[in-house]
Amino acid sequence: MLFSNLGLSADILRAVSEQGYTQPTPIQAKAIPIILEGLDVLAGAQTGTGKTAGFTLPMLQILSKHSLEEGRRPIRALVVTPTRELAAQVSESINTYSKYLRIRSTVVFGGVKINPQIAKLRSGVDILIATPGRLLDHAKQKTIDLSKIEILILDEADRMLDMGFLPDIKRLLALLPNQRQNLLFSATFSDEIKKLADKLLNTPKLIEVAQRNKTAERIEQVIHFVDKNKKRELLSFLIGSENWKQVLVFTRTKHGANRLAKQLEADGLRAAAIHGNKSQGARTKALADFKQGKVRVLVATDIAARGLDIDQLPHVVNFELPNIPEDYVHRIGRTGRAGNEGEATSLVCIDEHKLLRDIERLLKLSIPKKIIDGFLPDPTIKAVPIDRGQQNRGKTKKRSDGNRHSANKNVWAGVSSKHSGDKSNQGRRR
Predict the structure, then answer these.
(1) Assigned architecture for domain 3-208
(2) Fewest Cβ atoms closer than 10 Å to its Cβ: which of 138, 139, 312, 418?
């Protein structure tokens, strides 16, 4: 199967070819023809398998058939994402593949001034990419008109529900015309997503190219058991002794991300933190420095689990396991993308054994376990319940960027382990 066999125009194929692509991924090969037929779609695939192009390319094909003249034009397609980073990524993809088309697009999200966005919208765009909070801000100020939408895309819809966006999504749907094409794309499906799909989609085509909630096969996963107070020391040791050059590290909290980044800097590792309390400028700079190799370790909360597309990212580390098992899939999906190999390492203390079992139940596999000599867990330490704060499902918390967040409760039991090879703590500060 080649892209040229999927019914895409010569201008779109030219843009795709310039990116070095000739063969579609499985999700693209299945989704593109169905979307071009005008059907509603509920599509799922592992992260890093090309879902964004899977809806971007056919959307551009449909819109380009009836491109409008220059000047003010209605918004014809709306892409809604849960985070700023994912919105920016989708916008970049649309700009790349619409290079030779008379299609205009823009992206709106919180954390930046709204007036430049209003000016761009007034100039006329065909495609709008947005996060729910800022999109509703524009709707309230009457700076957008969504009554002419032909295509609605919810990207990572499950994450939007986990973040408490369902009320916002319902308000947005009320602003859209009844006659439209609806596309739901995500790496994981939950019962809540199925219920949303039943209400939103019109006899949808279900597309799944792999077992639901399964991680990419090219990602090597490992669990390192370690006491909580030795996690940072073990992380620095692994980065230094294994000579990891580019590492994305996940924490559960914003404060924890800031603290860990400072501690890694003290260990001689160039690090930066990215989370919802950071300004959009700071987040953009941290990500750019990480991609360019100026920063060796990027410490992030789950806001970065969706939307970070880093070429050949070799290492992802769960400094703390996520409260929601599905978030583990999205976190480690930042590596092993586009057919590349990757390594996902999780540092697990006694407090997190229940979270680990939930993850393994979701994945239907036992992740290999290791204990590094010098970091043997203290058997006398007893588990302490993890404080989930406002993150229980059903309770939402307003975030600084207008997003909301909630999480599932998780329950768990212990796991067995084995020792790895002999490694010392010498030379960990590099």
Answers:
(1) 3-Layer(aba) Sandwich (3.40)
(2) 418
Q: Report the amino acid identity of residue 53.
A: A
Q: How far apart are CA 327 and CA 405, in angstroms?
A: 13
Q: Which of 326, 342, 346, 356 is nearest to 44 (CA)?
A: 326
Q: Are strands 397-398 and 404-405 parallel, antiparallel or unpaired?
A: antiparallel
Please name the fold of domain 219-405: Rossmann fold (3.40.50)
Phi, psi dihedral angles at 216 (to 5 degrees) = -60, 140
Q: In the structure encoding, which two tokens stand for residue 315, read together? A: 């290492």
Which two tokens mark 40? 């509603």
Tens of pLDDT along 185-214? 876 677 777 788 888 899 999 998 755 555
Q: Which of 80, 84, 142 is nearest to 111 (CA)?
A: 84
**CA 105/CA 78 separation, integer angstroms:** 10
Confirm if 127 and 63 have CB atoms less than 8 A apart. Answer: yes
Greater model confidence, 338 or 373: 373
The predicted model gives 282-304 an average pLDDT of 88
* The residue to which tokens 């990480």 are assigned: 290
Strands (E), 240-335: 247-250, 271-274, 297-300, 315-318
For helices 166-173 and 132-140, the axis angle rounded to 10 degrees is: 40
pTM metric for this prediction? 0.64
> Buried b vs exposed e over 31-65: b needs ≥16 C-beta within 10 Å?
bbebbbeebbbbbbbbbbbbbbbbbbbbbbbbbbe
Count of CB atoms within 10 A of residue 416's CB?
7
How far is Cα 122 from Cα 292, in angstroms, rounded to an integer?
Answer: 35
Residue 239: CB atoms within 10 Å: 25
Whether 430 shows a pLDDT value over 70: the answer reads no
Rounded CA-CA distance 426/430 in Å is: 10
CA angle, 255 then 258 then 262, to 5°:
140
| pLDDT tens digits, one per residue of 394-408 | 333 343 343 433 333
User: How many angstroms separate the most distant Cα atoms in the chain?
Assistant: 72
Can you give the pLDDT at residue 93? Answer: 94
CB of 139 closer than 8 Å to CB of 176: no
Please, where in the chain does CATH 3.40.50.300 lie?
3-208, 219-405
